[in-house]
Amino acid sequence: MITMTSRRFILTFMSKRAKLGLTAIILSLGLVGIQLIDLEGRYQAIGLLAGLAYGLSAWALFEDLKKIEWLTVLILPTLYPVATALFYFLLPSRLLSQIVILLVFGIGMYALLLTENIFSVAAIRTIQLLRAAHAVGFLITLAVAFFLWGTLFSFRLAPWWNALGVLITSFPLNLQAIWSVNLEEKISESVWVNSLVLSWILGGLGLMISFWPVTVTVASLFLVTGLYVGLGLIQNQLAGKLFRKTTEEYLRVGGLVLIITFFLSHWQ
What's the mean pLDDT in 71-88? Predict the structure, then answer.
């Protein structure tokens, strides 16, 4: 027979914050487990990690998920572990580096789940933390893109494959980031169009940078800057805050990174 104290403990343990924390811990352990698997089976393990991330995130956020949020809200919590696991392969096999990445991932995963929780709740009622959630979501979107594109370019594929890979991987990132501006019950036509157009542009940039003699890191940072500028302009436009000064600031950042990338290229 369950006592009153036991009931309180269970209710406290299964509170939403506890679910978010437990999800972050389990996925962190999953990330560690993948590193212990032979190289031939790691990609299958990462696929399983993606399914686990979606399932656990949906379980933790279940109370407030509605309709299209089963897709939009859960995109980043699914892609973040996958991107980190893929990028893990490129890191030096030092214990300290792996521990640091693991801690950063766990904290980032918990912060991301809190962010997505705010999005799911804010779709119903106004929340003061929404602005902070947008900032965190934007930052993690850029991090996921860097991990994915760093992994993609490390394969040394043909330029056309790089372009296709950037286009495909950027689309879900763009979709969730653009949808999160107004948190609509349905994905509007403008969200679809803006996501597709920005993904197409990023694919073009991926094709272009593939012909430049740059390192994997420089190529990834160049594309992430393109994502930063594109998302920044679109999100501000949808929020009704795209002023001339804002546009100039984003374009200035893009132009500066383009110049730096040009001079970091090994043209000789």
Answer: 91
